[in-house]
UniProtKB/TrEMBL annotation:
Organism: Methanosarcina barkeri str. Wiesmoor
Protein name: CHAT domain-containing protein
Record domain CHAT: where: 7-57
Cited InterPro entries: CHAT_dom (IPR024983)
Length: 87
C-alpha cells in the first residue's frame, strides 16, 4: 500500500503514547527533520532524548517505529521530509 502511493517511510506508534512522550517526540522529531536531517536520524535523536530523560524501566523511547515500503531506502540519510510535509 505504501509503495503504491510512493510513500517510502512512515513513523507509527506501536503502543499507546503518554502525552509527555508524544510532546517530546513531536518536538525532537520535527526539529531534527526541519534542520535537514533524515527521518531515521530524527527518530534516533528522539530515542536518545527520551532515554536520557526517562526513569528506569521507561519504554517511551521504544514506542515509535519506522516502517519502510522499500528496504533500500533504509540507508542512513536517504529518507528526508519535504518542507511541505512539515507541520
Amino acid at each position: 500500500m505504501l509503495s503504491k502511493r510512493r510513500i517510502p517511510a512512515v513513523v507509527a506508534m506501536q503502543y499507546s503514547v503518554l502525552d509527555d512522550v508524544a510532546t517530546k517526540f513531536a518536538y525532537t522529531f520535527y526539529r531534527t527533520s526541519a534542520s535537514g536531517k533524515s527521518v531515521d536520524v530524527a527518530l534516533y535523536e528522539f530515542r536518545i532524548a527520551m532515554k536520557d530523560s526517562e526513569k528506569i524501566n521507561g519504554f517511551g523511547f521504544a514506542t515509535p517505529v519506522l516502517c519502510l515500503s522499500d528496504f533500500n531506502c533504509a540507508q542512513a540519510g536517504k529518507i528526508k521530509l519535504h518542507a511541505a510535509t512539515l507541520p
